[in-house]
């Protein structure tokens, strides 16, 4: 049995889509139980709309909500009875195996580090979403809020990402590449140039060198390593270019009577193909390297993405990903001073 | 009369598409003359295929070609009779107003700085392509090879980009934003945090704050400022996501008989709409801040892009962009030591 705490109050579509996603998840698998964390009367009212196996969903009351625009460190410190803090404490105490939230990214990243806590040896927990490619999916690691990374962080991202892709997504010996502005080893900024030889030396990953941004959507590598600023730009541009192009396609199809008739004929086939390029199919982004599993889903998540994010937690637990990460990084030495400092700030 | 030196040997489709683009450009405007620089017999043979006003095209022989994979600094130093070096010397000597090339980016960037030379006050010449957006085009500045920029570089990019958008593209009082991972001023990496207040203080630009990558395709700012590593990632991901999505759309349309019939009806309208999202319509990327105009077009440029890049040079000269950049940066003080060092390396 995998027990997942779900932030019923987080995200643009909370609580309705969150509760719906939770119901869909427990209906699909008998081995999942969900704790909906949030304002009890509100969550109860939502939940009353559905038929579902009662023993698989419970509600844990939390009186506060952390808003997206709140400074994360302050919010985690002051809102002790928020759905995020209550859920994270459940993970920390072992009352839940995982936590899924569509709420404030900043609060989730801070709370993950200061409440759930980092696994021994992990310098910085990366946020690692799966992104759609022509070949399937790639893991983009790191898209978190910790910018200005050091080479040692990127090496850990490569290791953690490889473990995730191999054991959660099921890709044997996943290829790893570092985002760069050219294919040659001597290209890049200072961070990439310092990191490249360290990745080359790593024996436990399948490092294939640099990847140019153009090759990411083609599926040029299974694990795409970068620091968080670049990762954030890649993730958001993926969404932006995709949305703009699809609206252009629709606009084109609606521009004449002839094309409108064509659009009716094309629509079902097109929908099926484009679905494979829809990020929400792949669930949320795990914050890797913590003592428990924390999954961040899109702020605008609908029930489908919430459902997928909850289901994802099962594989994560079954495959004992945290233990594998701990083992993989065990060979390494001390936790950096900076990381220790971050923990001290709250 | 605007005289444009064109690299007849550079790019994947040289010399055929380059020569064709030059012919199309001179047929369109009487006030352009083109010097095709490259291997004389080869260029002559290509040119013989076309009817065109003979007085508007001449050939300048250059016996060597710089290949994309050659280290740029070495190539510029050793291949004195290459089409790139010969053309750049023509610009330097005032024998040509501008140089257009689809050849090695690295060699063009190095040659631009060491042969054509920087305008007084310019610390680093940025490569600034126009990218298509929902609203029209935005200028992405910098996408060059000079990574690890300093805040003062980004401020100059913002000024040069504003001048270009206002006087070449014709957008009054263009909006300027810095690429960031959130909309708030306190977000960002060290470079962005240092640059943000400097941009806010600039009186001669219309700075509107941060832009998240998601908003770039929606046309969130006219001038999108970033350092070259991030700019390169944005430019190449734009191409990559676009190509992947369009191939998915085609695949979807070809997947059943019904959708194939629909595709025939939809095609003309779709083509027209998607054309507005085609980067090649907008010509090449100028390398701003040099003593002459240097324009880099895509390596895979076809005649249409070459033609547009040549036509672009007319507005650039007419509007006296270099003079405007010089005036705008005149208030500033010393040229940086690093930039001086770069000039000394060749």
Overview of the molecule:
The structure is a homodimer of 346-residue chains. Chain A has 346 residues and is an alpha/beta fold. The first copy, chain A, is 46% helix and 15% strand. Chain A has twelve helices and eleven strands. Chain A has a six-stranded mixed sheet with strand order 3-2-1-4-11-10, sandwiched between helices. The first copy, chain A, has a five-stranded mixed sheet with strand order 5-6-9-7-8, with helices on both faces. In chain A, helix 4 runs parallel beside helix 5 and helix 6 (151-169) packs across helix 7 (190-201). The first copy, chain A, is globular, with a radius of gyration of 21 Å. Chains A and B meet through helix 8 and helix 9 of A and helix 8 and helix 9 of B.
Order of helices and strands of chain A: EHEHEHHEHEEHEHEEHHEEHHH
**Low-pLDDT windows of residues of chain A:** 333-346
Q: For the residues shown, what is the average pLDDT of chain A?
A: 90
Compute the number of helices of chain A. Answer: 12
Most residues in contact, chain pair and counts: A-B, 62 and 62 residues
Shape of chain A: globular
Instruction: Give me the side-by-side strand order of the main sheet of chain A.
Output: 3-2-1-4-11-10
Main beta sheet strand tally, sense and closure of chain A? 6 strands, mixed
**What percentage of the residues of chain A does DSSP assign to strands (E)?**
5-15%
**What is the percent of helical residues of chain A?**
40-55%
Cα Rg of chain A: 21 Å
- In total, how many beta strands of chain A? 11
Oligomer: homodimer
Q: Which structural class matches the secondary elements of chain A?
A: alpha/beta
